[in-house]
Structures are given as structure tokens and as C-alpha cells.
Amino acid sequence: MLAAHYAGNRTMTVGEAEPAPPGPGQVQIAVAYNGICGTDLHILSGHMDARVDVPAIIGHEMSGTVAALGEGVEGWAVGDPVTVMPLAWDGTCPACLAGNRHICQNLDFVGIDSPGALQGRWNVDANLLVRLPGTLSLQHAALVEPTAVAVHDVRRAELAPGDKAVVIGGGPIGVLIAAVARSFGAEVVVIELDDKRRERIADLGFTVLDPRDDTAVEKSTVAYVEEWTEGAGADVVFEVSGAAAAVLGAVDYAKVRGTLVVVAIHPEPRPVNLQRVFWRELRLLGARVYQREDFEKAIELLDAGDIPADALITATVPLSEIQSAFDALTAGEAMKILIDVQAGQENA
Amino acid sequence: MLAAHYAGNRTMTVGEAEPAPPGPGQVQIAVAYNGICGTDLHILSGHMDARVDVPAIIGHEMSGTVAALGEGVEGWAVGDPVTVMPLAWDGTCPACLAGNRHICQNLDFVGIDSPGALQGRWNVDANLLVRLPGTLSLQHAALVEPTAVAVHDVRRAELAPGDKAVVIGGGPIGVLIAAVARSFGAEVVVIELDDKRRERIADLGFTVLDPRDDTAVEKSTVAYVEEWTEGAGADVVFEVSGAAAAVLGAVDYAKVRGTLVVVAIHPEPRPVNLQRVFWRELRLLGARVYQREDFEKAIELLDAGDIPADALITATVPLSEIQSAFDALTAGEAMKILIDVQAGQENA
Q1: Partner-chain residue, chosen from A94, A274, A278, that has the shortest CB–CB distance to B255
Q2: What is the homologous superfamily of the domain A148-286 according to CATH?
Q3: ipTM for the predicted complex
Q4: Which residues of A are catalytically annotated?
Q5: What is the pTM assigned to this prediction?
Q6: pLDDT tens digits, residue range A214-238?
């Protein structure tokens, strides 16, 4: 089979490898599509070399079909369409015992801490599988994992029908959060710097504001939200941009007792306006990965057409073009690129 | 009557003034004791001159008795012991309409935005009065307002019996939070820089750690909390110090899905470790003033002896010594100083 490896030095390599049979309790998956995630770009950049053993098969946003069953696996059949919730918890740490297994204190994130989906045949523990409906295409199903991130963020915010939400940052996760929030009955405004992204987001039916050039709305984004919410402020603000300035300004959109969800990863401490947090009794929440119900909800939303999957998938390319796909995403030239993992495989 | 005024230029003056009769709906209070609060020190420092009209009668931590009733006031009698919840909301802003009147978007904080309790006779709207039990001394009752702040912080954190809480900063509010948290059934560790304060807090039966000198516990405060909580981290962390370093480090004490309550006022944006907030799905909450149930709970706790009132009250001095009381507090030489507002009054 063909497999892609992160080889260090900003390089992805593709080569032949011998597929292993599934071990006891494992399922072998014929990987169909694998989306490239922001975390994968971080790995390529070398920022996560302390965590990732080189060479590493990465990839965790995937879809596929069951190819073989290991010893003792029940409830699955060859050919079943599946995705994987790539979290392996220890079940014994204080977080697990308190019911927060998804953020286990010793979490193994499959595709980062252990081998991922960028290979023709992938063996995973059967309990990580999530069943896909036959009505959902495997291309769209490769978006289940990032959509589950968005569902988790929206559920963590306790967003309710009729709420007004501001999403700062209109990349793939920002757009997914906006779409999920809309499907939950919220009204959504997206704030995005990039002109092309703003156009695409507007095409999806969202109000989208440029935080720098206020002429489009003839007022500042804060004034816009103030007026939109009749002086109250937004119920929920999602910080998805990763920018320090966005963190500093995010609290200005929120209503009294409003919620700010920190979705983006901020490797360095960021100045936060705690005076505003105090004055309005705001709630700032961290949100990380997902729980199984988030995966199930994500599948339901994708299957119902509530997620703009085709608009998000900029391109689908074979495994042999993985380096250029990573480079295009790093350069900000695409939203989501899927790798067709079967293309070029001998047994495809 | 005698009244104290903030006269600008770091100065409190005391002078004669003519008491006004209570207006319709108002009650005239013979003020007994008034505690000096951190906010009063901020006013004296000049930092709040944009908000406070000079000369201003300030003061909002008080106890007294009803001296006269204005037109239309029912349910109160001359001599009734009372305190005042010094919040006047407009009842019409989005925050009020959503049930958050205590942080009304146009809140009048009585004693800052309108005249306060540092005068022999004080007229306030009858609906701000809170009844005191005859069993509670008027000196201890002057601590109802800051105790209500602590009750509000603890309730906002949803602290539960058996929880483990870390209080960063052992000033008056920090000690009150520790005492209230203990009364709610939590185990509490206080972190405090000042040697004398640490001694006093230890005398109250709390575990108290020095964040600089780790020899007392032979490990860092983070390692101490890690061990104390059997590897989980604290359920709740209260940031009461106001220090930037404390904000940065506070998240390291918290368990997965733990809560950090920002109690101290941070006029400047503070670096926050959002990576940790994300990684552990922490919850950071602003908490401001109090609601009526916080006042009622504070009275109950003080009346039951659950609050170390005598240990907190460093001194009680007459109105004529107010400047030196402010100066001693500004210099950090005292925890809480009460002003005996009746001492020296002609009609005392």
C-alpha cells in the first residue's frame, strides 16, 4: 500500500509500505478520504516535533470502509462505511473518572500521538469507529471530524435557538461553527480579514464583516453587533482566529453574562480584558476536541445537507500530491483539501 | 451632622452638614459603622476621578438603624437595624430585562456614583434596605456587604461540598471567600505573599502557602495542589490578588473542566494562558457585586459566626480619624478598618 509520512524538515513523503493485519479488537479500514487539518500544518511546520516521532503517518479527518476485522470484533462487517473518533483515553485518570474522557489527562490523539489515516490500510481499535449512513458520500464524511469540533464548541457554549453569535475568523472551523450554530437556530455574524474568504462566507448566506475596513457596514464591528443585538451584545462569541488582537477585542461583542469560547489555539499567553470580563460577568470557556455525541450530531448535520461541505472542500487530490496540498494550505490558498487515499493504491 | 468627603488630591475631609429629610420612598438611616473598601482606596488615589464628583460623600459597607421614614414607606419602623445593598438599577436595559439587574448596564453604585454612608444621617431608597437580625452586632453587620461579595463569588463558581478551592490573595475579600467557601463545605488553600497575613490566615484554620518561598511545603504551590487533589487539580481557583503573575499562574491549579473566578479588578489587560484554558477545557468567570440572596446569605453566615469578623476588623475609629484610616489601609497596614460614624455626632 501507499502511505504518507511526515519526514521532518517541512516534508511529506509518500512510499510503499506493507499493510499489517488488524490486531485483536482492531478493525482494518480502507481509508477513502483524509482532510488536512490545521494541526497537520502545525506538524509539518515542525512546531510539534517534540510530540511527533519522525517519520510519522499522520491524518485524522477521514472516511473509509471496513476492510478486515481483527479477532473478537463484533458488530461490524467488511464494506461498512465508517469514520474514526481519534481519541484513545486511559479511563483511569481524574479527568476520565470525572466523565471527561475526551480530554483525558493522558490522551492519545490518534493521527498525532499514534499512526494516522494517510495510508491505504489503517488499523484502529474497533471502539473508535463511528458508523456512517449509506446516504452520506465518503467525501463529505471526511468532514465529520472537523464538524464534530464545531458541534462541540456550539454545545459547550450552550447556544440556544434565537441566540445571536459572533464568529471571529472564517477559516474552515469558523465556517463550520457558523453553519452548526445556524442549524441550532442561532443568528450568526462572521468576522474575517481575508477578502476572498469573506466573499465565500457571504455566498453561504452569512453576514460577514471586515474588522479593518468598516465602510461595508458604515460602523465598527462592535457598533454593528451593539445595534444588531439592540444594545445587549452577543450571546456567544467564538474566537477562532488565533490572533492576539481578536482575543483582546472579543469581549467587547459579548452581552452581560455572555459567553466567549476559545476555539483557536494560542501557544503564547494572550492579553485578555479582565476588566470587561468582571464588569459584564462574562464566561470564557475552553473547548477541545469532541465527544461521541458531537460525532453523531456532525454526521446527522452533514447527511441533512446543513453543512456547506462542497463549498468547504477546495480540492480533492491523490496521495502523490500531498506535499503541494500541504503547501497550498500553509499559504492560505485553500479552505479544505481532501487527500484521495485510494487513488494510486494497487488494491484500490 | 458630621459627614466625610473625598475632596480630591488624596484627601478626606470631615465637616458639618445639614441632614436632609428623607424624600418619598426613602428611609433616613442613622449610620452606625462604615467599613473602608478597596474601591474607596481607589477613589482616594484619584484613579476614579472621572466617575466621582468632588466633593463626594462615599462609603457603602455599612450598618445602622432606621431614623425616619419618607412618604409612602411601609414595612419599616424607626430603630430597625439595617444594612443597604447599594445597587440602583434602571430595570429597563437588556441586562435588567434578562434578569441580571445587579449588573445593570446603567448601574448606579450608591456610595460611588451617588452619595454614600460616611455621614451621620443617610437617605436611601427603601427598596435598597436589607433587614438585620437583632442578634448580629452592628460592627459585624458592617461586614455584610464584603461578605456578600464573597458569597456571590462562591455561588458563581457553583462550589459544592467536598470541592477543593484555591484562593490566590489573602486580603479581606480573599479571607472572606475562603471562609464562605469553607462554610459551603469546600476544603480551601490560600496563597498569600505577605508574612503577617499568612500568619493571621493560618490562625483562622486555613492552609496557607507562600508562592515565593516554597520551603514551608517543600514543593511549589502547583505541586502542592497537584498532590492535595491526587493529581486532578482544584475544582475552583479564585483570583483575588490583582497581580498579573497570579493570573498567568492561576490556570495551573485548576482541574480538567475546573473554574477560575476573576474577583480582583485588573485595570489593564492581563496575559492569560489560553493554551491551558483550551487543553483542560477550563471555565473563567467574571464575578461582580452581588444579588439580594447573597446579602441574605452573608447575614446568615455572619450571624452564625461562620465569618471571622473580629479577626478581619483591625480597628474601629471615629469619623475624625478617617484620613489616617485610609492612609493605613493604603499602606497595607490593616485588613479592615471600620469608621464609627456616630462617634462625635451631636445627635449620637
Answers
A1: A94
A2: NAD(P)-binding Rossmann-like Domain (3.40.50.720)
A3: 0.96
A4: 39, 42
A5: 0.96
A6: 555 557 899 999 999 999 999 999 9
